[in-house]
Structures are given as structure tokens and as C-alpha cells.
Amino acid sequence: MIATIKRAIAPLALTLATAASTPAMAAGSPFGIWLDQTGRGAVEITDCGGKLCGKLVWFKDPKHEKDGCNFQIIGNVKPVGGNKWDNGWIVDPDKDPDKKYDVEITPQGDQKLKVMGYAGMKFLSETMVWTRAPADLKKCGEDVARAPEPVPAAPAPAPDQDKDAPVASPAPAPAPAPEEAKPERNASSGKKKDCKMDIGFAVITFPCGD
After folding, report:
1. Long-range contacts of 125-134 (CB under 8 A, 24+ apart)
2. How many CB atoms lie within 10 A of CB 91?
3. Does pTM surpass 0.70?
4. Angle at 14 between CA 10 and CA 16, to 5 degrees
5. Hey, which CATH number is domain 32-132, 1.10.150.20, 3.20.20.140, 2.40.128.520, 1.20.1560.10?
6. Share of the chain above pLDDT 70, in %
7. Which residues touch 72 (CB under 8 Å, ≥6 apart)?
8. Which residues contact 208 (CB under 8 A, 6 or more apart)?
9. Residue 167: its pLDDT value, please?
10. Contact predicate 55/44, CB 8 Å
11. HSE of 22, CA atoms in CB hemisphere, 13 A
12. What residues does each domain of the chain span?
């Protein structure tokens, strides 16, 4: 009887031993870039002061990049144990980017992420499964070259003086006032010269006036 019991429990013991020796699936990490459930967008989840935050970094349709690139849709999600994050918020940019919902995030291994949005009570929730994006996914804005800094314009050179233009001549200096004629004096004596007048029959000599 004892031998029969031993033969019966032996396979069960082997099964339990095998299960114990098999490593559990890695819990995974929420950080990285994830394709959403539609495959039309990707969200990058990063550490923001010990909490999770996420922003849109890729769009299948490039026309959405201008308005949606780096738009934050997840914030303030805190670790709550059991490899879960909760008590944060998420928005649905396709519906109302200004309306926030509660969110719980749980990694499902390294390649899947369960994202559950709810409004206060979790039985009123929507669960989405996101997939880790390929390593070569190009984030929006990466291929936009930085515009060069504007170079300050050089001051315009002063216009050259027209060589053919007439050069203004300086105004002529005023002519000196003519000196008053002074009566001639005798160089030797300093006396006034005598004036003579011929009246035909005689020559009259008299002192010249001033």
C-alpha cells in the first residue's frame, strides 16, 4: 500500500520540482517607447521624479506631428507595489485632450504594457495593451535640423563721394579796404611837398593840402 502511494505521488513531486526550477517571466519595465493599441501612435514613458510620465513621440500619419509631437498624455503615475503604477492621469487626444482620466499601468513582461483608464472606479474602465516599439523607431522632431542663428547685418558702407561732382570753392576773402591817400611828404624833412600851378604867365608854388 505504501509502495503504491509512493508511485502515485512521484510524478506530482517531479512536476512541482520542475516548476520551481523554471524562472518566472520577467516583470518588465514600463519605461521606453510603446505603440498604442491602434498602432497609429507611440508614447515614450519616462521617470519624472520617481513617477511615470508619457508623451507622444511618433505618428503613423506625419501630418499629426506638427500639433501632437511631445504632447504629454500621461502624468503623476506612482508605484503602488506588485510592479504596478497607479493614481496618475491619462488623456485621450483623439477625444478630448483637456479631459484627464485615472490610469493604472502594469508591465506584462518586457514587450507588453497593460494600460487601464478609469474614472474613479475601476469597474468602469477601459483596458488597452500597448506593444514595445522597435528599437529603430524614429521619434518625431529628430530629423528637423536646427535653424542657424541669424547673422547680424553688416553696417552699410558710406557712399563714395562722386568724383565728378563739383567741389565747392571757399568763399573769397573780403578785399582789404583801400587806404586813405595821404599827402606825400618829403623823405628828408618829413614836411609836406609844395604844389605848383602854372597860370600861363607865372608858376605859383603853395603847400599841398591834406
Report:
1. 128/36, 128/37, 129/37, 130/34, 130/35, 130/36, 130/37, 130/43, 131/34, 131/35, 132/32, 132/33, 132/34, 132/35, 133/32, 133/33, 133/34, 133/35, 133/42, 133/58
2. 19
3. no
4. 115
5. 2.40.128.520
6. 55
7. 53, 54, 55
8. 183, 184, 192, 193, 194, 195
9. 55
10. yes
11. 8
12. 32-132
Closest CA to 113 of 104, 105, 101: 105
pLDDT at site 142: 77
Q: What is the pLDDT of residue 95?
A: 86
User: What cell does 4 get?
Assistant: 503504491
Taking a C-beta distance cutoff of 8 angstroms, is the pair 40, 56 a contact? no
Overall residue count recorded for the chain in this entry = 210
pLDDT value of residue 194: 66
Q: Alpha-carbon distance 144 to 43, whole Å?
A: 19
